[in-house]
Amino acid sequence: MEQAASYHTYHEITTQPQAWEDVLQEINAQTPQLLASWDQDKPRSVLFTGCGSTYYLARAAAVIFQAQTGIPSVAHPASDLVLFPDIFIKDGNKPLLVAISRSGETTETLLAVDRFLSLGLGQVIGITCYEDSSLAKMVSTALVARQAHEESIAQTRSFTSMLVAAQALATILAGKSLSDEYLRLPRLGANLLDDHSALAKSLGEDAGIERFFFLGSGPFYGLACETMLKMKEMSLSYSEAFHFMEFRHGPMSMVDHHSLVVGMLSEMGFSHEVTVLREMRTLGARVLALYPHALPPEHADYQCLLPGGLSDLERGPLYLPVLQMLAFYRSLHNGQNPDKPNNLSAVVHLNIGS
Q1: Mean pLDDT of 26-32
Q2: How high is the pLDDT of residue 108?
């Protein structure tokens, strides 16, 4: 097995806290422009869109945005906006579109933005990693994670950096200030990787684990989907994502002693969510819990102890790096190249009409 540090993916996972710092500076510089545009347009609804990883990011961002601003916010895949515009693009609520794309060149996302703009419905904010991309040039405002560029195909550093941008955007447009603890996010993320990378490696290399289940609810469901996708993309392992309570409605029938159930616990839903984890342990699964407070042994076999002082709406980026590292080490264990997942490319171009 090659040394982990020789892979681009390893470098991108371990350096993402520095990219978060750059994003926070970017958002701070654009705050006056963002607030002026928001006050002028006064959108009554917000539509988030993306493809693949960025669709899952959009799902998380929509929940956070609605919670912060009180404005109805939803997420749809860009392909739905292109193929079913009469269903998913409505002008009655004076919408704002937030389009998310790592490359800024994904076909469906560009077509969705073009369709939205052609209807004259409202403004578009783009979140991307490339300031010279087609998306950045199309939108009225572009939030660019310049330090989140990636050589590897699977999104890691770019995903969390664009999530930071979406969180900061929601906070600012809600008329709030970023908390002092949130501004410490880069240092907190670096500490987490230092503290828990060994655990990620151990579980990733554990041949006794054959199935991975990632559970998250509310603002964390989109993140559970993203960690599921990372495991599938990089390692070709069986992995699925579910809301905590939905997992009990059928999917838990797949749980056995070869399963690792990963719980992205929230403070708002903790008592119900931790009950699900306890139940999965009685079914034979091993449990990895991510939470900002220490859990008793009956709740989890392993814990990634997250820092306190952050709300459920702020903590999201900290759930990802250790789980990305888990997928990375599982990829190596399975003899895969994490930089170049099977059948995938960094930018998806499709020949579909507008």
Answers
A1: 93
A2: 95
> What is the amino acid identity at position 260?
L
User: Does the domain formed by 4-178 have CATH 3.40.50.10490?
Assistant: yes
Query: Is the dihedral angle over the CA atoms 90, 95, 100, 106 positive or is it negative?
Result: positive
pLDDT number for residue 354: 44
- What contacts 26, CB < 8 A, 6 or more positions away? 143, 144, 145, 146, 165
Q: Is 2 exposed, middle or buried (0-12, 13-18, 19+ CB in 10 A)?
A: exposed
Tokens 């809600």, residue? 174
Helices (H), 15-105: 16-41, 53-69, 78-83, 85-88
Domains 4-178 and 186-333 share a fold: yes
Q: How far apart are CA 65 and CA 231, in angstroms?
A: 27
Tokens of 217: 């609810």
Task: Please report which helix (H) or strand (E) contains residue 242, including its range.
Answer: strand 238-242
Predicted confidence (pLDDT) per residue in 138-157, tens digit: 999 999 999 999 999 999 99
Estimate to the nearest angstrom the gap between the alpha carbon of 257 and the chain centroid. Answer: 28
- Residue 145 CB-half CA count within 13 A: 33
Structural contact between residues 209 and 259, judged by C-beta atoms closer than 8 angstroms: yes
Give me the percent of the chain exceeding a pLDDT of 90: 87
pLDDT digits (tens, 9 = 90+) for 58-109: 999 999 999 999 999 999 999 999 999 888 887 766 899 999 999 999 999 9
186-333 folds as Rossmann fold (3.40.50)
Domain ranges of the chain: 4-178, 186-333
As a whole number of angstroms, the longest Cα–Cα distance in the chain is 57
